[in-house]
Amino acid sequence: MWIVYACGSALFAGLTAILAKCGIKKTDSDVATAIRTIVVLLFSWLMVGIVGSGSGITKLSAKTWIFLILSGLATGASWLCYFRALQLGDVNKVVPIDKSSTVLTILLALIFLGETVTWLKGIGVVCIGAGTFLMIEKKRVSGEKTEKKSWLIYAVLSAVFASLTSILGKIGIDGVESNLGTAIRTGVVLIMAWLIVFVKGKQHTLKSIPKGELGFIFLSGIATGGSWLCYYKALQDGLASVVVPIDKLSILVSIGFSAVIFKERLSKKAAIGLALIVAGTLMMLIKLPT
Description:
InterPro entries: EamA_dom, EmrE-like. The chain crosses the membrane at residues 30-52, 64-86, 106-130, 151-171, 183-201, 213-234, 240-262, 269-288. Belongs to the EamA transporter family. Residues 1-136, 150-285 form the EamA domain. This protein has helices at 2-23, 29-51, 62-88, 91-99, 101-113, 119-135, 150-172, 178-199, 211-237, 240-247, 250-261, 268-283; strands at residues 139-140, 147-148. It is mainly α. It has one domain (2-283). Strands 1-2 form a two-stranded antiparallel sheet. The longest helix has 27 residues, at 62-88. The relative contact order is 0.24.
């Protein structure tokens, strides 16, 4: 059943990137992140109320609180970098780099969680790494001779923080109802996101957000909420080294919609890279006979 939740996470995560891209054409990415986190928080606590796990918050250990908070901080950092990268770069360039966090997550799961890595998973990691490299293409800015590279830096940082989120989250939700864990983590992200907005003095831009973009920001928040709830339920019941690769298949959803909505096209090199990423991800799901 946890595999079904992982697939649901991938679908919603793929839609998140597209909806967010539509909502940050003119809106500052940090402000958009802070707003959409409110939606995710409301969504998360709504689910806590539905399943009736709110009372469990008084039973959490100090260790659980620490790792949930650390996971939330890592998530916040990943979000801020990811949506800044989306604002500066194309979806079909940013998303593959963000999804490369699979490789680092598997290595961290091996080191800190003791999860085994078979030779087939090893090949899968190599495919994902090679595919990501092939999909990294510089974004040329129209009318300029120089190339804008800042989106690449933000995308890489997003991947690093995302991998830390998975490991810290796996430790933090041990013995915690998944919806409650998600809600607590989201609260941490919300505080972090709004602190960034006020520290950078961007709160004055709230009044100038186009209504259309605000709608897409809210929708992306709902999609993120759905993705998170599915993801951490799958992570709680399954292996991080399997759940994470399935979640990363959201790249197919994002790139598919980016081609339709934003008319973004993959080069032959990038298409080969995408095929390698998908092939490597699917290898993670194959169970070898023991």
